[in-house]
Amino acid sequence: TSVDKGVNHYIGSVYQGTNISTNHGFELMDILAMIWVAGMVCMVGYLLISYYLMRRKVSQSIIIESGVSICDEISSPFLMGIIKPHIYIPSRLDKTKYEYVLAHERMHKKRGDALWKIVAFVLLSIYWFNPLCWISYLLFCKDVELACDESVIKSRELTWRSDYCQALLECNNGSRKVAFIPVAFGEVGVKQRVKNVLQYKKTKPIIVAVI
User: Fold this and answer.
1) CB 133 within 8 A of CB 124
2) 23 three-state secondary structure
3) Residue 78: φ, ψ to 5°
């Protein structure tokens, strides 16, 4: 009680006659916060809707072996799923290209790229207002494919690599879009990927150690 009386007396004596302004409207930071949340909701909504639409596309796919299905509704092979990643191949794809497509998608599966791509998109959803994050995401998607290509071809001879490049070109649907959900075989930077595959040289252990 004595403390309360002392504090009340001090506040009354110091702030007596002071007008306290009351703002019932929105301040700039409130507006910016609402825009940020709205943008984040739109990004996450786009992620979920894209995933749902892709699931609908592959709902009528036919399993040809464990973890692999063919589908009439898709134009490029891709890996989709987190807990049990599944490979989907377009039915129009020449069967002679299956070996190269499956080698690529199974490497994505081994590396856990489908999960990392979703994590990257969630981070992009949080920092959607930053242009550098968009650039980073696009470069990340490109690097995922380049790294996967290198992992697949590092122990292969030149003839196999040439056939792999041919499969890449055949699976390229001409679109420049970056798929946000699947890890696709021929979606991202096919021209550069073909060049890297044909010019690939295994990094010497001494260089790796220095780096």
Assistant:
1) yes
2) coil
3) -160, 165
* 197/166 Cα distance (integer angstroms): 11
Alpha-carbon distance 140 to 178, whole Å? 11
Percent of the chain whose pLDDT exceeds 70: 81
Summarised one tens digit per residue, pLDDT across range 71-82 is 998 888 888 888
CA distances from 26 to 20, 21, 33, 49, 159 (A): 17, 14, 11, 32, 66
Alpha-carbon distance of 155 to 63, in angstroms, equals 29
pLDDT of residue 207: 52
Contacts with 13 (C-beta within 8 Å, 6 or more apart), sequence order: none
Beta bridge partners of 63: 69
**How many other CB atoms are there within 10 angstroms of residue 98's CB atom?**
17
Measured between alpha carbons, how far is 18 from 2 in angstroms, rounded to an integer? 25
Q: What pLDDT is recorded for position 14?
A: 67
- Spatial separation of the C-alpha atoms in residues 176 and 141, rounded to whole Å: 12
Residue type (1 letter), 2 = S
In this structure, are residues 138 and 178 in contact, taking their beta carbons and an 8 Å threshold? yes
| Whole-angstrom distance, CA of residue 17 vs CA of residue 133 | 51
| β-sheet with 86-90: strand ranges across | 62-65, 68-71, 86-90, 78-80, 183-184
